[in-house]
Amino acid sequence: MNRISHWIDGKIVESSSGRSSALFNPATGEQTGAVDMATVGEVDAAVDAAKAAFPEWRATSLSKRAETMFRLRELVDANRKEIASLLTAEHGKVLTDSLGEVARGLENIEFACGIPQLIKGDYSEQAAAGIDVYSIRQPLGVVAGITPFNFPAMVPMWMFANALACGNTFVLKPSEKDPSVSLLMAELLAQAGLPAGCFNVVQGDKVAVDRLLGHDDIAAVSFVGSTPIAKYIYETGTANGKRVQALGGAKNHMLVLGDADVDMAADAAVGAGYGSAGERCMAISVVLASESIADELVAKIAERIPAVKVGPGNESGNEMGPLITADHRDSVKGYVDGAPAEGATLVVDGRANVPADGYFLNPTLLDNVTTDMACYRDEIFGPVLSVVRVKGYQDGIDTINANPYANGTAIFTRDGGAARQFQFDVQVGMVGVNVPVPVPVSYYSFGGWKASLFGDTHMYGPEGVNFYTRAKVITSRWPDPSTSTIDLGFPETR
Question: In this structure, are 10 and 153 located in the same domain?
Fold first, then answer.
């Protein structure tokens, strides 16, 4: 039985806690191993290792840090198939999706390779007579990342690439549901030349999380997960004096106007709604269908669903795998069970004809959903697509803006004016125009608004660099000592 342990100070460290969590293959339901649950002392050991490594790493030249990122980039690229296989084995997503996850994570390492340019300060000569003023950005120290089960490779890369490149040291607490890739990442970082202690992994649960949030030597915490936990992370971390970015849940809407190409919109809805079994924070879970094309759109989505190939992620040709756990599958199924009683129309029932083994639920389509239904209000995080019928543009905008989540959204239209107005009006952090899953490229930043983000800084890209550094402004003068006098007046620039 495979045992997943911690990575502390450059080596694997087995836990002495006596606590572990079982690991399962979601496609078969078979237990494949167990992951250690860290003690408070083991978290402290990881933080101590990161703290001890920080002075040397912080003093390492920018060119050397960039070189390390370049080496890591090549290693991740060379090992992308192995990484993807681990993702599929523990998360369940199909191999093509796993490879896509690695590719999008790799983009963030590539961005971090440009850290000498990204971290540059500013300089103003002669701001006053004989005085220069300049700014620099410096690393925070030891920072932590707490990452979700749905992207166990990509989201850590969102965090640690920028964090390390900026000169911080890092402690990762991955999801206990699919932790194996975290150790592979640690090994690749070591191969890239990252000194021992700069990157550490503690496996665990709330015990580990709470210790990271309360540890005096942790300067900042990055988190991606559900909104209730994001709120807890933010409130607890900031109460303990830490800088926190906590990305929460989503209920992403796709507004389809009457002039849209209905076939293209149907294709997009199926891909964005059922990809990775809906276990994406950027998944489209609500289609706002303009009344003039609603019947046609629902019919076209329904006719496409049977063609979606559902099965084990490691089998060629499958397009959608299982859900992560049996409990989560049952939770998603519960929303399907309850929707008709609330008045929704069950157009395609994903509970039928599921594979006998594993935690599968087929693509499900609900029509005539209203905003007071549980299937609309809650983040289901599964292959359930809800269609809400709207009168048109304004009704759609009002529905989106009234929702407490504001992670991603999309509009499908052939009207450029409507599209431009949509990006102006919509109160959502990431917007797609005829793009159903508008995840920004690595040189922008990722994050939503409202209940989808706690904190004022988005993930990765330029905002990620700002998050993992702090500004220092220096006012400098080198006068002739013979001219020195006592001046009690307020400093002047003129």
Answer: yes
